[in-house]
Protein 1
Amino acid sequence: MKKAYLGIDIGSISTKGIVIDENNNTLADSYLWTLGNPIQAVKNVLNEIAGKMDGSYTVVNIGTTGSARKLIGTVLGAQVVKNEITAHAVGTLSVVPDVKTILEIGGQDSKIILINQGVVMDYAMNTLCAAGTGSFLTSQAKRLDLDLDDFASLALTSENPAKIAARCTVFAESDLVHKAQIGHSKADIVAGLCRAIVMNYLNNVGKGKQIKSPVVFQGGVSKNSAVVKEFEKELQMPVHVDPNGHLMGALGVAVLCKASKEETSFDFSITDIDFVTKGIECTHCPNNCEIICVYKNGTLLDAWGNRCEQGAQK
Amino acid sequence: MKIGIPRALQYFFYEDLWLNFFKNIGIETIVSPTTNKEIVKKGVANSIDEACFSSKIFIGHVEYLLDKCDMIFVPRIENSAVREEYCTRIFGLYDLVRNTFPDAKILNAEVNYLYRKRESNAFVKIGEALGKTKEESLEAYQNASSTAESIKAAKILKQEELLKGDGIKILIFSHAYNTYDACIGKEITDYFNKNDIKIAYADLVDEKEAQALTKEAYGKRVYWKVSAQLIGGIEKYRDSVDGIVLISTFPCGPDSIFNELLIRMIKDKPILSLVIDELDASAGIQTRLESFTDIIMARRLSQRTPSKHVRNRR
C-alpha cells in the first residue's frame, strides 16, 4: 500500500478536501458548500474523495484547517489542526515556492500573508467587519439579478467603472442603488464593485504592507476574473491565480500532515458514524461559558469552551 | 467600616499602594472579584456606548460592590506629576460613578499636580474622612508607597531575569488594566503560557527609565502617562523578545494613536494587534494567536539576519 495524506479545509461557506501522495501529487479532491452544517459537509467531501481514490493508496494521516478545524479535527481524530494562515502559506509554497505575497479573499474573511524565503513574515486579517468579502459580492450579485459567473464577464465589458465607496458594505450598497438610479449602466456598476473590493482590500487588510511579486491570489473571490484584473491594474504587477487556488488551505494541512511523520489508520467509513454536537451553557459561575460537546454514536467524544475546570464535561 | 475597591482601571496601577495603605491605617477593604461575564454585563448595561470596554468593566465592578461595603473608593487621579496625564476616562471616574450611581457613597480624593494636589495630600484627606490623624495617614502612606515600590522593583528584576533565559518570548504592550483582567488579557496570556511561550510585560519598567527611553527613541515626550511608560517598556525589552502583542480595548483613544505608531516604527519584530470589546469573539482571537505563534516559531527556526533597530527619527 502506498501512503497518502488527507487535508480538509472547512470554511464558513465551502468545505474543501484533498488527498496527496508522498510527492505532493493530488490523488483526489472535493469542493462543496458547507451550508451551515460542517459535519455533514465533511462527510459529503469524504464520500466524494473515497469515490475518486485509487485503491492502491491508504490515508495514513489527516489534518484540518478553516474555521471549523477544531470540531472536525475532533470528529476525524486529526493529527494536525492548523490555523488558516499557516495552512494557506504552506499549501501555496508547495505549488509556488518563490511566492512573496498571498492575497486571499474568502466568504467572510480576507487576509494578506507576506512571505520571505519560504517563511511567513507577517500577515493581516480583516477585523470586525466582513466588507468586501465573497459574501458581499454574492449578495450584491443577487440584488442586481446576476449570476456570479456573469458578474465577472459583465464587469470586464465596462470601460468606465462607476466609483463606489467600499469602506463599508452598508454604504457601498446605498451607493450602488444611487449609481443605478442616476443612470450608470449595470456593467459599469458591476465593474465599479469589483474595483471597490480591491481598493477596500488594499486600504484595510493590505494597509502598510509591502506587496512584492510574485503575488498569488486565492479564496473564492479569486475566481472572479474582473477582481483579478483590478488587482493587477492597481498593483502594477502580475497576479497569479491557480486553478486549484481554492484547495490551498487543504493542501497546506495535507503537506503538514506529511511533515508530521505521525501515522494512524483512517477509514472512510467514518461517514457512517453519527456525530452530534450540542452547545451547553455552564452554570457553575457567572462566566456562563458556552461549552461545545461532540458526541460519537451517543457517547461524548470531546468538549471545549470552558475557561476553568468547573466546566469540564469529562 | 468597610471600603470597597473595584478591581478595574486604576486598581491595576495602584493595587499595592492602596491595599497597604488601608491595611496600615487599619481599615477593612473588599476588592471586587476578578472580572466575570456578570460584571461585564452590569458594566455594559450602565455605561454609554462610547465608553471603552475597560471603563464599562469598571462600572460593572462598582455595581457589584454597591451593597457589599460602606463606601466605594474612587479617587480622581488626574496625573502623577506635571505633564504626566492619565486618560480622561480614568480621571473622570469619580464623576462618572457619582452620576451613574447617585446613591453610592464614594470615598474620593483628588490628585492633580497642576494644582499642587499631591498624592500624599490625597491620602491624608482619605485618612481624615476615615477618622485618622494626619500623622497616622502620612506614615501609612509612606510605608505603603515604599512597599509598593519594592514589589514593583522585584517584579522588574524577575522579568529581566526571565528575558535573559532561552525559549520563545513575547512582549505584551497593553494598559495593566487590560493585560491582567480576567475578561480581557487572560485568554491571551493563558494561550501563550499553555504553549510554553514566555511573556514579558511592557508595563513592568521603572517609570524614570521608561521616560528617558521614550524620549531617546521618539525625540519627544509622549503626552499620556501610561502610553509613555509602555513605550519605554517596548524600547527596553524589544531586542530580547521574538514578537510583540498589542492588546487594546475598543475604543481606546491613546491606543488608537500609539498602536498605529508602533506598527509603523517597529519593522524588525512581528507585531500582533488585538482589539477586544464586549462582543465576545474568541474564535477570531484564537486564529490570530495561533498564526502569530507559527510566525515567531518559524522565524526562530530560520534564524535570519540578527535583529536590529529600524527607526525613523524625526
Protein 2
Amino acid sequence: MADSRDEPLVLGIETSCDETGVGVVRGTTLLADAVASSVDEHARFGGVVPEVASRAHLEAMVPTIQRALKDAGVSAKDLDGIAVTAGPGLAGALLVGVSAAKAYAYALGKPLYGVNHLASHICVDQLEHGSLPEPTMALLVSGGHSSLLLSTDITSDVRPLGSTIDDAAGEAFDKIARVLNLGFPGGPVIDRYAREGDPEAIAFPRGLTGPRDAAYDFSFSGLKTSVARWIEAKRAAGEDVPVRDVAASFQEAVVDVLTRKAVRACKDEGVEHLMIGGGVAANTRLRALAQERCEKAGIRLRVPRPKLCTDNGAMVAALGAEMVARNRAASDLGLSADSSLPVTEPHVPGAHAHAHDHDHVHEVSKDNLYS
Amino acid sequence: MLLLALDTATPAVTVALHDGTSVIAESSQVDARRHGELLLPAVHRVLADAGLRLDAVTAVVAGVGPGPYTGLRVGLMTADTFGLALGVPVHGVCTLDGLAYASGIEDGPFVVATDARRKEVYWARYEDARTRVGGPAVDRPADIAEEVAGLPAVGAGAALYPDAFADVRGPEHVTAAALASLAAEKLAAGEELLEPRPLYLRRPDAQVPKNYKVVTPQ
Ligand SMILES: [Zn+2]
C-alpha cells in the first residue's frame, strides 16, 4: 500500500443535487467522470424538485458506478477508498449517495470518506492543474452557492471569508432566464445570448459594493429584482425587450461583482492563487473577466474545464484521494447525510477516529470483509 | 443459500439472515429518522452474530415498500449496491406482504396498513398470510372504512386510525426475518420475486423549494 498512499485510487459519489456523479481518480489524475443528470425532468418546474432528484439518483446509481469503473479501466477491488458527498445539499438526495457509498465500501472492504461538497469543488482543480497551492483562494459559484473560501489545506482547513446573503449567483441566472422565457437552467442560455449583446447597454446595480458593505459577501436579490422590473417596464410600454443586451448587462453585473471581490480577497490576504469552481464557473464571461483582472493583479487563476466545475463525482474522488494521501481518518458506517454540513468541515471522520486512524473501517469490520 | 434481507419502508430498520431453512440472525430497531445511520451497522451486527462474512451472502432481499420515500430508498440503495459489489441477485418483496406473513393469520380476509403520513395509509388486502388479493394502495382511512369494515387489520397504520380499523392485530412493523422467510419460501417454490424497485404509489411533490439548490448554509 506504500505506493498507493501517494497516488490513491479512489471512487467518488456525488448526489447533493440533481446530478448522479461517480468519478474515479488516481491521486490527482482523472480516470473517469460519469454523470447521469435529471435536469430535463426538472426543467418544466423551473428548478430542482428534490423528490424527483432523489428518485433519479436511486435509479441511476448502479449503472453510473459501473460506467465509471469501465471508463477508468479499473476493478473495484483495486480501489483504495470510497468517497461520498456527506453534505451540504438536498437531504433526501444526499442520503441516496451516502447509502450507496456505505454499502459499497463495506462490501468491498474499503475505507469510506464522507466529504464536504464545497471542499470537493475546490479540490477538483487538482485533476486539471495539479496539486493545489497552499494557500488557495476559492470562489465557488453555482445554483446553490456563492462563497469566497480560503484554504491552507483542503483536507483540514477551509475558512469562509464571505458568501451570498440572499440568492446564489446561479439562482439569479435561472430567475432572469425565466423572466426572459429562456427556460431552465438559465446559466448556459444567458451566456449564449449575452455573447451577442452589449454588456454596457443597461447599468444594472452591483450589490454590496459600497464602501461600508461587507467586503466579501454577495447579494444578487436586488439585481434580480432590478432586471425583472426593467423587463416588465419595457413590456408594459409595449416595447420589444432587447434580450441579448439584457442578458449581457445582467451577466456583466454578476461577474463584475464576483471577480472584483475575489481579486480583492486575494490581495487583502496576500494569496497568489485564485481558483473558481461551481456551475457558474462554466460561464465564459466570468472566465474571461477573471483572467483579465487576475493578470492585472498578478494573481494566478485556476479554473477547471466546465465539466469539472458543475457537480460531478470526480471532484468527490479527488478530495477522497487527498484524504487518503494525507492519512485523514475514515468515516464510520454510521455516517449520516448532513444537508447543512459546515464548509469548515472538509470531511466527516468516524466517531472514534483519531489522527492516524486511516483504516478505521477495516478495524470495525475486518472479519466480515473480503480481504 | 444465505439470504440477507433488509427493510426500511416503515419506522423499523430491520435486517435478517436466512440460510434457506430458518432465520439465523436478525436485528430490528425502530427509529423513523435514522434509517441512513442505522442500516449498515445493523447489517454488520447481524453478520457478526451469525459468524459470517458479507461475501457468504448468495442473494439480497429488500422490502420495496410502499413506505415513506426517503427511508425506503436507504434500504433499496443499499441492496442494489450490495448486489453490484457481491455479484449476487437482488430481489424485492412488498413490505406489506412481510407484515401479512408475520401476522400468521391463516383465515382471511384481512388487511395490512402502514402509516403513509399526510393522514393516509398504505394498505393491501389478503386472503391469508401468503396471498395478497388487493392493493397495495394509498388512501385516506375514511375513504376505505366501508371496504375494510369488520376485517382484522395488521400494522401500525391500522392502529393509528381506530375509526376505520376496529380489529387491530400485530405486528406493528415489518421484520426482515418475516421478509426473508417469505422470500425463502417463494424461491424454494420457484416463484418469481419482485424487481427491487420502490413502490412509491404517489407522484413526487412537484414543488421547487424557494432556495431550491441551496447547499451553502445561510
Ligand atoms: Zn455544487
